[in-house]
Amino acid sequence: MKYNVYHAINPTFGFGEPLKFPDEYEKVAVVDADSLEDTFRITNHIDKSWTTNSEVVELIKLHNRSTSVGDIVEDETGVRHLCKPCGWEVIEEMEKQ
């Protein structure tokens, strides 16, 4: 399954006010993964830069940080998932405020 990965431009890592999607996010990659957890693992620096992982199908923006709390992963059906301190939260609609 392909997942679109969006990183917060100015991440708050879950602190402060919720960020506005899409204005405060940038699409950084498309990843071929089996699950949200797999996507998270693939887009984290572990023993090398995640941007070199073979599952990264398309690198849209050279980014120097791992996927973190507050970032968004969108699945092939268009459902967006907000990365939480523990797990994921489905986002029905993050309206511009």
Would you mind describing this structure in some detail?
This protein is mostly beta strands. It has one domain. About 5% of the residues lie in helices and about 30% in strands. It has one helix at about 35-40; strands spanning about 1-10, 25-30, 55-60, 70-75, 80-85, 90. The protein has a 6-stranded antiparallel sheet, with helices on one face. The longest helix has 7 residues, at about 35-40. The N and C termini lie far apart (about 30 Å). About 25% of the residues are buried. The model has no long low-confidence stretch (mean pLDDT about 90).
Oligomer state of the chains in this structure: single chain
Instruction: Name the average pLDDT.
Output: 92
The Rg value, from CA coordinates, equals: 12 Å
Unreliable stretches, pLDDT < 50, 5 or more residues? none
Helices, by number, come to 1
Count of DSSP strands: 6
Shape: globular
Helical amount: under 10%
Largest sheet: 6 strands, antiparallel
Strand order of the largest sheet: 3-2-1-4-5-6
Distance between the termini: 31 Å
Q: In sequence order, what are the helices and strands, one letter per element?
A: EEHEEEE
- What amount of the residues lies in strands? 25-35%
Number of domains: 1
Q: Which structural category fits the helices and strands?
A: mainly beta
Could you list some keywords that capture this structure?
97 residues; mainly beta; six-stranded antiparallel β-sheet; 1 helix; 6 strands
Outline:
By secondary structure, the chain is mainly beta. It contains 1 helix and 6 strands; from the N terminus they run E-E-H-E-E-E-E.
